[in-house]
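Quick one:
INPUT:
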């Protein structure tokens, strides 16, 4: 076995483990007090090293497992990564103090995470990742549920929200696993509105499957475009003072609360219609205009001026700078760090990937995934923080699948076998058997490491 094949084998075995590392990293900040052993792992330098390792694995994976039939569609991803790289380099000249450099390194990791998209165009890589999650990470939730805050349940189980879109293809037992996980996330903390939304929306999108014979692709395309246009319309209405969609008290009457967890993990009653976004938009936009970085961004070394959280940051850094490095709104961070240029490039990735999934696919699951991706674009105007977490990692996996020609060309039956293989190895063997019979498959393979890639 030559060196290339050895490296390929190593990468193929490391890739699935990355989803375990991403999961642990995502929930570490939410570990309850009194768990010193796990809290000790919440070390910045340690996780910088692990994050760098994960990025390195997927960079090499792109060389070994990227399906080159998708090369043309990857151009926008390359441009976005290149622009992020330029902003990171600019950040080296903008950084002034230790906290700037610390923020630059952390944010640079997140801005480079779209490298995952390339490997995720290989449907067998995605199958391997999710199979590892179902087999090892999901059972571990029974342990983590005892030591993390309830509002972090959704962060740990976010891959389940992705698998819900394949609900009709699963067996009864597999469906019960997903339903049970979803109920736990929603019931455990109704105050965690983002978790409720991310796990609830896929069930609404499933209606496309059950009414697929009555809903033409043109209607799906209209729905996709609406999800892209809607935030622009609401943003314009909000900025001009005509209508603020976040101020729900104006059009929803009543006091709606739900039990949730506060920062300390205590159970409290929280309003589910409270406006927690308007002031963030105001701070981000005013900061960009006042400091004239709206076009090219302030770089990932810096944040937006904030008089809401700025005092706490100033006390932490010891520097009289009322500045917040990142916000809860994902798109606001893209805007602050990379400017309007970055926002446009980021939007084009979502737009192109969702377009291909809805309009250039043979199976209904890809179309539903495209609609879901369009929703995630809309949701990035509300939350979907683009940090180095499992949530953002899975978003990149979704984008990769939408770009994937091999995934989009599968039939509904092919997808059924593929997704069941994440839960049951027997379906993987059946998948291998079918591939062996296929005239384009030259060799039998025991894992995605041996799958021949198409050349341009």
């Amino acid at each position: 076995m030559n060196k290339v094949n050895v490296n390929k084998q190593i990468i193929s075995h490391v890739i699935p483990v990355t989803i375990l590392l991403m999961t642990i990293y995502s929930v570490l900040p939410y570990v309850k007090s009194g768990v010193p052993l796990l809290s000790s792992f919440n070390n910045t330098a340690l996780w910088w090293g692990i994050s760098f390792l994960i990025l390195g694995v997927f960079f090499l994976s792109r060389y070994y497992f990227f399906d080159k039939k998708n090369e043309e569609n990857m151009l926008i991803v390359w441009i976005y990564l290149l622009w992020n790289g330029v902003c990171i380099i600019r950040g080296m000249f903008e950084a002034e103090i230790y906290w700037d450099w610390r923020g630059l390194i952390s944010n640079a990791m997140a801005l480079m995470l779209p490298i995952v998209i390339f490997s995720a165009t290989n449907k067998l890589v995605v199958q391997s990742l999710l199979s590892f999650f179902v087999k090892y990470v999901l059972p571990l939730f029974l342990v983590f549920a005892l030591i993390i805050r309830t509002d972090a349940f959704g962060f740990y189980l976010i891959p389940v929200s992705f698998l819900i879109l394949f609900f009709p293809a699963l067996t009864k037992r597999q469906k019960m696993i997903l339903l049970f996980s979803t109920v736990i996330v929603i019931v455990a903390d109704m105050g965690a509105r983002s978790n409720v939304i991310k796990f609830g929306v896929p069930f609404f999108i499933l209606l496309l499957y059950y009414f697929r014979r009555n809903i033409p692709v043109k209607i799906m395309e209209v729905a996709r475009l609406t999800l892209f246009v809607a935030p622009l319309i609401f943003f314009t209405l909000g900025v001009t003072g005509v209508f603020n969609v976040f101020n729900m008290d104006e059009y929803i009457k009543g006091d709606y609360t739900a039990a949730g967890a506060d920062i300390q993990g205590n159970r409290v009653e929280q309003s589910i219609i409270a406006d927690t976004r308007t002031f963030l938009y105001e701070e981000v936009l005013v900061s960009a205009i006042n400091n004239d970085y709206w076009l090219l961004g302030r770089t990932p070394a810096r944040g937006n001026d904030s008089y809401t959280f700025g005092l706490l940051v100033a006390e932490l850094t010891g520097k009289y700078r009322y500045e917040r490095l990142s916000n809860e709104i994902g798109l606001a961070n893209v805007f602050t760090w990379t400017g309007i240029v970055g926002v446009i490039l980021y939007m084009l990735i979502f737009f192109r990937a969702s377009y291909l999934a809805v309009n250039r696919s043979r199976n209904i699951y890809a179309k539903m995934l495209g609609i879901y991706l369009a929703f995630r674009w809309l949701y990035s105007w509300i939350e979907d923080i683009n940090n180095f977490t499992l949530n953002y990692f899975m978003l990149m996996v979704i984008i990769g699948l939408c770009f994937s020609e091999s995934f989009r060309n599968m039939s509904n039956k092919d997808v059924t076998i593929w997704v069941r293989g994440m839960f049951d190895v027997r379906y993987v063997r059946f998948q291998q058997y079918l591939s062996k019979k296929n005239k384009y498959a030259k060799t039998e393979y025991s894992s995605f490491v041996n799958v021949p890639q198409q050349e341009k």
